[in-house]
TrEMBL record:
Domain of life of the source: Bacteria
GO terms assigned for molecular function: sodium:proton antiporter activity
Pfam families the record matches: PhaG_MnhG_YufB (PF03334)
Keywords: Membrane, Transmembrane, Transmembrane helix
Membrane-crossing segments per the record: 6-28, 40-59, 71-89
Start and end residues of each stretch annotated as Disordered: 104-124
Origin organism lineage: Bacteria, Pseudomonadati, Pseudomonadota, Gammaproteobacteria, Oceanospirillales
Full protein name: Na+/H+ antiporter subunit G
Length: 124
């Protein structure tokens, strides 16, 4: 295998691994569900994408033609991970899960829950 392919694969695996590690750490350390949603969503989209791109490059080199299985998995994850995070956030709002006290904009949660538009400030 050429050296440049090995370097690209290693860099892609390292980037993916770093995002997965940071995402796992954030999932364990962040205080409430609304903050915890951000961490695994980024980990799954960016981390797994890095690993799958490395796998796609390696398999394409070994097979002699473009391996699209990994590309299809990556596209599926890029589409479904944000949608799943949105559904989890809506469920937390529906069950009236309280955010931590330092959360900004928590007064808008009732409007979001009831699907109202937030009150606009009067124009001067």
């Amino acid at each position: 295998m050429p050296l440049y392919l090995e370097i690209i694969i290693c860099v892609s695996l390292l980037i993916g691994g770093v995002f997965l590690l940071i995402g796992s750490y954030g999932l364990a350390r962040l205080p409430d569900i609304y903050m915890r949603l951000h961490s695994p969503t980024k980990a799954s989209t960016l981390g797994i994408t890095g690993v799958l791109i490395a796998s796609m490059i390696l398999q394409s080199h070994l097979q002699g033609f473009l391996s699209i299985k990994e590309l299809l998995i990556t596209l599926f994850l890029l589409i479904t991970a944000p949608v799943a995070a949105n559904m989890i956030a809506k469920t937390a709002l529906h069950y009236r899960t309280k955010p931590i006290n330092e959360t900004q904009g928590d007064d808008l949660m009732e409007a979001i829950r009831d699907r109202k538009s937030p009150k606009q400030p009067p124009e001067a």
